[in-house]
Amino acid sequence: MTTVFPLPAPVLLPVLNSQQRFPVRRVYCVGRNYAAHAIEMGHDPDREPPFFFQKNPDNLVQAAEFPYPPLSSDVHHEVELVIALQQGGDAIDAGDALDCVYGYAVGIDFTRRDLQAEAKAAGKPWAAAKAFEYSAPLSQIVPAEVIGHPTDGNIWLKINGKIKQQGDLNQMIWKTPEIIAELSKLFTLAAGDIIMTGTPSGVGPVARGDAVSCGIDGIATMTVTVV
Q1: Which class for 38: exposed (0-12), middle (13-18), buried (19 or more C-beta within 10 A)?
Q2: Residue 115 to residues 119, 168, 175: CA-CA distances in angstroms?
Q3: Residue 102 Cα to chain centre, angstroms
Q4: End-to-end CA distance of the chain
Q5: Do residues 100 and 87 lie in contact, with contact meaning Cβ atoms separated by under 8 Å?
Q6: What region, left, alpha or beta, does residue 169 occupy, with left being phi > 0 and alpha being psi -120 to 50 degrees?
């Protein structure tokens, strides 16, 4: 079978200490999954059903630079634990959910905050604020067989060496098994799915020239420069 134009290149993420690559199928994101961040964004921090949205697979990048996007003058950083799935299904039990996990990474969910605020006020989707080019730089994926399944650990982000975000994975409202279980009620999960699990408080703007570094203790670190 031929196609009307060449197939797009697959999105393949590097794996720590391996020549193999992780092929991406879909990208899911969890909103407001740290109580302090929910408060700073003007929402109730109580444990409500998790809120999900999506990015595009090709928004995930391995790059030293983050190009400041057009049509925005208020782009914010959001550091996150990233889950990579090796299998999936529907209505997955939380007790079985960790069997689905291939590994973990650290990532940044860059957000056009001004466009997001406009969309919220108009009751419109957030796609233009979240799913734009280069909006999700990621570290290498670290297999769970190497580090297990982290339930705590310092998660942080610095701009030009100054700490801006800092929290602990144990502060997530919905934990990794629960996120997978809840997400699988809405979508059929599968190998290659990526889940960005939400950000701690301290989100704020970036500017051209900023060096943005982030990490999760025991998993990975990463630095990008805003250009």
Answers
A1: buried
A2: 6, 29, 29
A3: 16
A4: 41
A5: yes
A6: alpha
Is beta strand 65-66 parallel, antiparallel or unpaired with respect to 60-61?
unpaired
Q: Are 76 and 151 in contact (CB under 8 A)?
A: no
Query: How does pLDDT run along the chain (227 residues), one tens digit per residue?
Result: 899 999 999 999 999 999 999 999 999 999 889 876 555 555 566 667 788 999 999 999 999 999 999 999 999 999 999 999 999 999 999 999 999 999 999 999 999 999 999 998 999 998 999 999 999 999 999 999 999 999 999 999 999 999 999 999 999 999 999 999 999 999 999 999 999 999 998 999 999 999 999 999 999 999 999 99
Strand locations in the chain (E): 12-14, 21-23, 27-31, 51-55, 60-61, 65-66, 75-77, 79-85, 101-108, 111-112, 136-137, 142-143, 154-159, 162-168, 194-196, 204-205, 211-216, 220-226
